[in-house]
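Quick question, first post here. What does this chain look like in 3D?
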Amino acid sequence: MKILPLIISVLLIAGLNSSAQDNENILSLDDVIYIAKQQSPEALIAKHRFRSSYWNFRRYKADYLPSLLLSGNPKFENYIRKTSNASGDSYNEYRSSDVDLDLSIRQNIIGTGGTFSLNSGLNRNDNLLNKNVQYTSNIIYLNYTQPIFQHNSFKWEKRIEPVKYNKAKRKYLEDMENVSITAVNYFFNLLLTQLDREIAFKNLHNYDTLYKIAIGRYNLGKIAESELLQLELNYLKAQAAVENTELDLENNLFKLKSFLRIQDNVKIELIPPRNTYHFLVDASKAIDEAKNNTSTALDFEERKLETESSLNEAIATNRFDADINASFGLNQNGSTLPAAYTNPQNSQIIGLSFVIPILDWGVGKSGVKMAESNMELVMTSIEQERIDFEQNIFLTVMQFNMQKNKLYIAAKSDTVAQKRYDVTQKRYLIGKVNDILDLNNAQIDNDNSKKDYYRSLRNYWQNYYELRKTTLYNFKDNMKISFNIEQIGYIE
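> Answer (accepted):
Ran it through. Tokens below.
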């Protein structure tokens, strides 16, 4: 089931790109949105951006897992070195090889901010002039480093990084809904130019007929010359409109193909959406869903945590700072490898390093005050943005809830205008309407009403996907919008 959407996508896109030049592909709005989500530049950018966030989060998690490392440092030396003693300086040739191997396990401790490591190493040093060999072994070596009173970056990363990753997942969903909105715009731009072309050809045909009839009526003295000239002018304008709409159609067709990354020789014809989904959305529910689902809500939390972390770091930097380092191990040396592991000796080291600020001329205090001021600024900004965020959702919901009535009015107006034009045209043809202006006005109203209906359709679908984007909730099916991470690709 996971590969079914991919198979459908491949078949649909391959079918488009392999179409013959003389075949026309009929695409619905759903087809255009589906293809856009698979291969449009915006969709691919969104996928790559999420993959980057995904692997960044994987790297963060790996940083807090035990790491096993094998390191080495082979070295060869050959030079003249100076030796000083009571009798003076002497210069002797020195030639040696030195090889270090170290196997270590390292683990960061999130709760304390310390680092624990377990090492085992071996060194071999060869004096190549006198054939002397020395082995030094660190059979086992445990080390723990613990900062005291310092900023614990591990603890803050544990709080911030999951928020950043979850925000990236939500941002990907929002980006894909934004792809749908962009696809709606390209779809209806082309659909409206298709409509313009149909209207232009229809008007050209109608005015050609009317102009020929008017010539006969003028020759019989039934209409004035001004009316004949008006019809001739309308006929010429209709010819020019046909040429303009052809150019606009090619331009919008190119833009849609470029957005969908479809071959230029593929012919496309769009069909208007037949179904719309009308349901009333409760504004309070939409706001609650947006708070729980969207990246904006997590962005507020991330910024709050980051500014708190910065303040904590500034405070920690301004006070007593110390590190404790403790280690315990067993080591030995010898001229042979077995000797280097025989009767190992204990090795213990405990160290304390500290820094106490005595006089810094207010540098540390200034850093703390700057961090506090920045935190207040961020919190104020977040509060205002939260208000704007909720207001924007409220307006989006209100606009969507109005679309049903707007579509009904637009559809009814289109029907009325078409009927009026048909009646006026028939009455003019049989001579019951003598004023050409009545026919012109009826034709203009009919054309505009048809376009207004398609514009209302575009507004509906823009609002539909804008509502999905701003809440990441599918109100039609009453479920949260989500995605399967395996569909992104290149993620294991």
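Confidence is low (pLDDT under 50) at residues 1-11, 18-22.
The longest strand covers residues 88-108.
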